[in-house]
Design a protein that fits this description.
The chain has a single domain, classed as 5 Propeller (Tachylectin-2, Chain A). The longest helix is centred in the N-terminal third of the chain and has 9 residues. It contains four helices and 28 strands. With 351 residues, it is mostly beta strands.
Length: 351
């Protein structure tokens, strides 16, 4: 293996273990298993535009048209554990699960941060969960919204990684999912997921810090060599880098040096313009790219420096992408109001 690349790196922050324990003391600790028994909204299967799409659904009317919440990231129960595609709820029922993320625009002078949405693929029932940063000061517990773009998410083992653009990554543990008394602090949400720790984005002198615009998981050919794949949305001369960080299969943490620094094992500057998501399957990159509000999106297939564009393959405004091995298919989602879809693309449709 080549030595780690210099230039960009991530450094893990202090864990919010005490703060999360304080939240749980005054609320109800559910974990993801409990939320799967409390899904309160209904999505609807619909025909989704795009030459490569074979299945999709849309959110309920409020979420489909919301001016505040803009869908961004996606990951699946197939990412969570290479050995199974399903997650057991507290009731014992098993679910095929999608997790998506969205960020809040400022509406009526208020920004609500970011959230994830838990979707049962078998029933299309779903529920929103607010992402929060817990803190304790002067004996007072506070839950602040996590104000990031959340352009990509990865579910690996017990953890959910959230892309924070120039801030790096934020990591939540899904067992920490908590039911709280809805109120102004949580913008009326009854379920919150606190950030447990983060990875600050750092760079060497003279190197532009990486923008973590999107994320995906590559488990490798044998399933026991996981990597976090990240990249940058870029246009008009901005960098368009793709990067890979190794994950420890035992802990699901980024592999790190003694000082907590994680360095990529691969970085390539030859991405494509308007990248919204990227994943790697059997050594081949699959990259979603947007073409504006009114044109269907593209998928670029190949590797940096030798991509082939599949035009009009996916809907307008495509975002993050995740691979489901048992289906040999990709899942993605789109962001524009009135045309917000979650959709599947068989890998064979991109050949």
């Amino acid at each position: 293996m080549a030595p780690p690349l210099p230039g960009v790196h991530l450094r893990r922050t202090v864990e919010n273990g005490f703060e999360i324990a304080e939240v749980a003391r005054s609320a109800r600790l559910l974990g993801l298993a409990g939320v799967l028994d409390a899904l309160d909204r209904q999505a609807e299967e619909v025909r989704v535009p795009g030459l490569a799409v074979d299945y999709g659904f849309t959110w309920d009317e409020d979420d489909r048209n919301s001016p505040r919440w803009w869908p961004q990231g996606i990951t699946t129960s197939a990412d969570a554990d290479g050995g199974t595609d399903r997650v057991r709820a507290a009731s014992g029922r098993e679910h095929r699960v999608l997790l998506t993320s969205a960020y809040s625009k400022t509406v009526d002078g208020r920004n609500h941060g970011s959230r994830i949405t838990v979707v049962d693929l078998d029933t299309l029932r779903y529920r929103h969960v607010l992402l929060v940063v817990p803190s304790v000061a002067g004996g007072r517990l506070r839950l602040a919204p996590l104000e990031v773009h959340a352009g990509g998410i990865v579910w690996c083992g017990p953890y959910l990684y959230v892309a924070g653009t120039r801030r790096g990554l934020f990591t939540c543990r899904l067992d920490d999912l908590i039911e709280v008394e809805p109120g102004p602090e949580t913008f009326g949400y009854a379920h919150v997921l606190p950030v447990r720790f983060g990875y600050d984005a750092l760079s060497a002198d003279g190197v532009e810090a990486m923008r973590y615009s999107f994320l995906s998981l590559d488990r490798g050919a044998g399933g026991d060599d996981p990597h976090l794949v990240a990249g940058e949305y870029g246009r008009d001369g901005m960098t368009q880098r793709l990067v890979r960080f190794p994950l420890d299969p035992e802990t699901s943490h980024l592999r790190a040096e003694d000082d907590g620094t994680s360095r990529p094992i691969h970085l390539d500057e030859r991405g494509v313009g308007h990248m919204q998501g990227a994943t790697v399957v059997d050594g081949t990159h699959y990259v979603t790219s947007s073409r504006g509000r009114w044109k269907l999106g593209s998928v670029f297939v190949g590797n940096p420096g030798s991509f082939t564009e599949r035009r009009q393959a996916i809907p307008n405004g495509p975002e993050d992408i995740a691979y489901w091995p048992a289906q040999d298919a990709f899942w993605s989602l789109s962001e524009y109001p009135g045309r917000r879809y979650v959709f599947r693309v068989p890998r064979a449709n991109l050949r």
